[in-house]
Amino acid sequence: MPDDIRLVAFDMDGTLLRSDGTVSERTMAALTECSRQGMQLVVATGRRLASARRSLPPELQDLPSVFLNGAHVYLNGERIHHDPMPLDDARRLARLIEERYPHCILYADVDGRLYVNRPDDYPEARYVPSVHDMITEPPCKMVVTLGDSLPVDVLQERLPPGCKLIATAGGRWAEVVAPGVSKAAG
């Protein structure tokens, strides 16, 4: 491997993890070799901390990690970076979705608590009738379902200024974060 590589950052879904949610022996061997050669391994994912930890093998649990697409960064188990959306803009977005697109599923990650506007089998999500009402602190990330009635370009046009849209999962979901948030910036 080249001597000038000092850091290897990797996403989880579709990169580290196979479709069955496991890490292949070949991938683990490659990461182990990178670490042995002195390269710093870093997890960089759109997932929340708890979701990522459930899926990471024990050998990768304590790595420096970028979560929520860069809104949270952890080093040695402690959060060292936190970049939430402006509170008013997040509340405005939640109100827009709940009033104009009530069929859409809306998640908001508010200080480690995950709220959703529909009953859901996602283990970390707490169903609430109004996500807007639960946003009392600036959220780090919001997720909205997209579809024919709310295409990504319409959502992009209506985003408040303190929000940035990241379309994911084949265009079925939109993740919304603060404008400066990215896995690379985190």
What would you say this structure looks like, in words?
The two termini are 26 Å apart. The chain has helices at 25-36, 49-55, 87-100, 131-134, 152-158; strands spanning 7-10, 40-44, 65-67, 72-75, 78-82, 106-110, 113-116, 125-127, 141-145, 164-168, 173-177. A hairpin with a 4-residue loop joins strand 10 (164-168) and strand 11. The mean pLDDT is 92. It has five helices and eleven strands. It has 186 residues and is an alpha/beta fold. The strands form two sheets. A six-stranded mixed beta sheet has the order 8-7-6-9-11-10, with helices on one face. The protein is 24% helix and 26% strand. The chain has two domains: 7-82, Rossmann fold (3-Layer(aba) Sandwich), CATH 3.40.50; 87-177, Hypothetical Protein, Haloacid Dehalogenase-like Hydrolase, Chain: A, domain 2. The radius of gyration is 17 Å and the shape is elongated.
Strand percentage: 25-35%
Distance between the termini: 26 Å
Under the CATH scheme, which architecture of the largest domain would be assigned? 2-Layer Sandwich
The counted number of beta strands is 11
Number of domains: 2
Topology:
Layout: E1 7-10, H1 25-36, E2 40-44, H2 49-55, E3 65-67, E4 72-75, E5 78-82, H3 87-100, E6 106-110, E7 113-116, E8 125-127, H4 131-134, E9 141-145, H5 152-158, E10 164-168, E11 173-177
Parallel strand pairs: 1-2, 2-3, 7-8
Antiparallel strand pairs: 3-4, 4-5, 6-7, 6-9, 9-11, 10-11
